Amino acid sequence: MKIIDGLNYREWQKRNTELFSKLERSKQKELRNKGYRNKGWDQVQKSWELLKYSCQEFSIFNHKLSKHDLLGAINHSILEAEQAKVVANESLENLERNYNQVKEGLISPNEYRQNFYGKPCPFCGKKMVHGKVRYSTQSKQEAVSRGYQYKDANGKDYINQVGRFSRLYFHPHYVTLDHKINKARCPELLFEASNLQIMCWKCNQKKSDNNNFEAEQTSNFVSDLAREALNRYKNLGK
User: Fold this and answer.
1) What single string gives the DSSP state of each residue in 92-148?
2) What's the distance, CA 97 to chain centroid?
3) Rounded to 5°, angle at Cα 80 from 74 and 82
4) At how many degrees (to 10) do helices 41-54 and 25-33 cross?
5) pLDDT recorded at residue 142
6) 12 phi and psi, to 5 degrees?
7) Phi, psi (degrees; rounded to nearest 5) at 54
8) Please, is 119 exposed, middle or buried when counting C-beta atoms within 10 Å of its C-beta (0-12, 13-18, 19+)?
9) Is the dihedral of CA 85, 90, 96, 99 positive or negative?
């Protein structure tokens, strides 16, 4: 039996159907017009991507927990961890190779970013995307319908965008090249390759000029991990 991301074909279909049924009729019609077809492996996977853009993110882990499948959720977490380890090793090798190319001026910033298409963001873990034609639009309304809008650090609606008069709106997890140490504070590091890092646009916007962002993210991750562990595995007492 073919298994993708820990689910078989029927489980993929069922997950899509459950999430699709919770949408308003107008949203369902909109998704159908965009190509929602819950039949056939390719269509089922494409439909899931459409649903993720239109709804709040609903992970396989949460799906299994909602069905009280604790063992399945744990097994999927282990599978994701193993996959993340493989991807991380590949990313490190890729980063080292491309770092040398950047250092020697053999690759453009855009070509460098393109190498991280489909890779997880080092800070939020979301899959990053690249390609202006596919992952941007000149219509703000279209950007909202695609799910590009998100809440910024102040809780306000925000969409990644460039341009003053002819705006382009981008996917929240579009690949960006960031300066680890803010270039305004340390202009001498502006063209230093070792001061560059890859991250998704949403995390880049959240980071802003905070040079302590990475340390804060690590601290928050450890705290969240400890809190989740305590919530799931209660103290049995004496």
Assistant:
1) HHHHHHHHHHHHTT-S-HHHHHHTTTTPBPTTT-PBPB--HHHHEES-HHHHHHHT-
2) 23
3) 105
4) 130
5) 92
6) -60, -45
7) -90, -20
8) buried
9) negative
User: Residue 136 has what pLDDT?
Assistant: 92
Tell me if 119 sits within 8 A of 91, measured CB to CB: yes
Q: What confidence tens digit (pLDDT) does each residue in 83-110 have?
A: 666 666 666 666 666 556 555 556 677 8
User: By three-state DSSP, how is residue 211 classified?
Assistant: coil
Q: What is the dihedral of CA 18, 21, 23, 29, to 10 degrees?
A: 120
DSSP label of 23: S
Cα separation of 170 and 27, whole Å? 21
* Cβ(129)–Cβ(192) below 8 Å: no
Q: Contact 74/65 with Cβ under 8 angstroms? A: no
